[in-house]
Here is the input.
Amino acid sequence: MVHKLKIVLVGPCKAGKSTVANFLSSNSENSFPEYRPTKGVRILEFEKKDVVGSGTIEIELWDTSGDHGYAVCWPAIQYRAHGVILMFDPKIDNHKSELLFFYQAFVAQLNLSPRQCLIITQNQTVNLPNILGKICQINGNIEKNGDQLKSEFFKFIDEIIRFATISEE
Ligand SMILES: Nc1nc2c(ncn2[C@@H]2O[C@H](COP(=O)(O)OP(=O)(O)OP(=O)(O)O)[C@@H](O)[C@H]2O)c(=O)[nH]1
Ligand SMILES: [Mg+2]
Here is the structure.
């Protein structure tokens, strides 16, 4: 039985990772302060109640920096991760190629199934290269799509729990 899930949130700088991580982990109202780059990684802990077969489970959301200068920390960040969320902003030049880079560096590196992976696209959903086609993609706009973003995130968590439980058996 899984009681703690480690989910790693990766993607280029300014993709909106920390903003979305704050929104998903708290019940507070949305706020969009000025952009402040994450230094290395922040770990946000929160609970999901009433998980079938597990009761309450603890979620560790690892909100990483998009700065490749922290790549020396990536093996520690990847260690025993149950799932990866990729985030990017299609309006920013080079974010699509960065997305593929982070896919290779995290999802492929960890040999994860598409079910253990989620793509959050800032403000919209877009067509993605075939290699990412099996991964569920959701709109990360908090003001317009906040409720759905939260419910899709928790559906993703349920899917990972199911996957982790089956793998343990
Ligand atoms: N209005 C609005 N602004 C957003 C939303 N999501 C992110 N932003 C803004 O977009 C910028 C992105 O900042 P962060 O979330 O810190 O970006 P990050 O991906 O964590 O960047 P690094 O930590 O440097 O890797 C911030 O200025 C946010 O306020 C959103 O849903 N709505
Ligand atoms: Mg950040």
